[in-house]
């Protein structure tokens, strides 16, 4: 029997709500992937509530978890590593060391870096030193990077208004030549009315993936999208189709959250779950938003 695709997912975790691993873990597992989830921070809830409890994992505790993952041979087994929000500089440096050693030990491993640093409106919500580790150490190792326009602008000093701006930003990043950049949530000068786009740039060229622009902004949206992209890749979808599947399923989750009056993404909508299970069988039709 063939083992399912295996993911090491290193990002935040919350007790209540869906951000970080608490958003990405379920979709990957429901699609039939095996996931080892390593938290970088543990918070009580998503940050849109009046109070927030918890903290970044102490460096020695986080280091111990990584050592346990190494002792179980997880880097050698993994097909993917996904990283997201990191809450302390020491942990950021340890994540970079872990990814570097894992890629050295496992040439087939694909590293997906979601540089969770900030967004339009709140601005940069990690210390600049952590954002610097993402820029200088994590992104150069990435096979796929998934920044939003704010993050891409911060990383490159390049405003993102046009397709040319995106291409200039791709060139300014320290990505490997064979890496793919997925610029998420783009509204460019020529984006269609009522739409936003995911723009994919890589060795094969550029493709644009428009979708309806929903009047919904909820914590965990980007984390869910990145997890869904990995789920699609794990089920052997071509990257453009994995992006479109992730867009459609993210939109379903957002619409369901709005219908419930929830303050964050919701993963319990029946069609959302059915689409993930179908993805795991390899017989999925492209989901509708």
What does this structure look like?
There is one protein chain. Helix 1 packs parallel to helix 8, helix 2 (59-71) runs parallel beside helix 4 (89-105) and helix 6 crosses helix 7. Strand 6 and strand 7 (123-124) form a beta hairpin. The protein contains ten helices and eleven strands. It has helices at residues 21-30, 59-71, 74-77, 89-105, 128-138, 149-156, 163-172, 221-234, 239-260, 270-281; strands at residues 6-16, 34-45, 54-56, 80-83, 110-113, 118-119, 123-124, 144-145, 180-186, 195-202, 205-212. The model has no long low-confidence stretch (mean pLDDT 94). The strands form two sheets. It has a nine-stranded mixed beta sheet with strand order 3-2-1-4-5-8-9-10-11, with helices on both faces. With 289 residues, it is an alpha/beta fold.
């Amino acid at each position: 029997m063939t083992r399912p695709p295996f993911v090491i997912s290193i990002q935040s975790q919350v007790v209540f709500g869906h951000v970080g691993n608490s958003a990405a873990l379920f979709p990957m597992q429901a699609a039939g992937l095996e996931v080892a989830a390593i938290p970088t921070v543990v918070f009580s809830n998503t940050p849109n509530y009046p109070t927030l409890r918890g903290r970044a994992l102490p460096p020695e505790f986080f280091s111990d978890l990584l050592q346990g993952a190494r002792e179980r041979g997880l880097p050698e087994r993994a097909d993917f590593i996904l990283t997201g929000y990191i809450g302390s500089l020491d942990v950021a440096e340890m994540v970079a060391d872990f990814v570097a050693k894992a890629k050295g030990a496992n040439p087939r491993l694909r590293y997906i870096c979601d540089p969770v640093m900030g967004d339009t409106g709140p601005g940069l919500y990690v210390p600049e030193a952590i954002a610097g580790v993402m820029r200088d150490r994590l992104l150069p190792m990435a096979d796929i990077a998934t920044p939003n326009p704010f993050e891409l602008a911060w990383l490159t000093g390049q405003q993102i208004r046009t397709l040319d701006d995106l291409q200039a930003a791709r060139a300014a990043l320290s990505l490997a030549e064979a890496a793919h950049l997925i610029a998420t949530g783009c509204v460019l000068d020529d984006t269609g009315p009522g739409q936003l786009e995911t723009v994919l740039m890589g060795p094969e060229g550029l493709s644009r993936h428009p979708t309806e622009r929903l009047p919904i902004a909820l914590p965990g949206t980007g984390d869910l999208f990145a997890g869904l992209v990995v789920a699609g890749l794990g089920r052997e979808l071509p990257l453009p189709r994995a992006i479109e599947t992730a867009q459609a399923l993210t939109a379903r989750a957002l619409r369901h959250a709005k219908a419930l009056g929830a303050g964050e993404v919701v993963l319990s909508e029946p069609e959302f779950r059915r689409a993930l299970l179908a993805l795991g069988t390899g017989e999925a039709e492209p989901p509708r938003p």
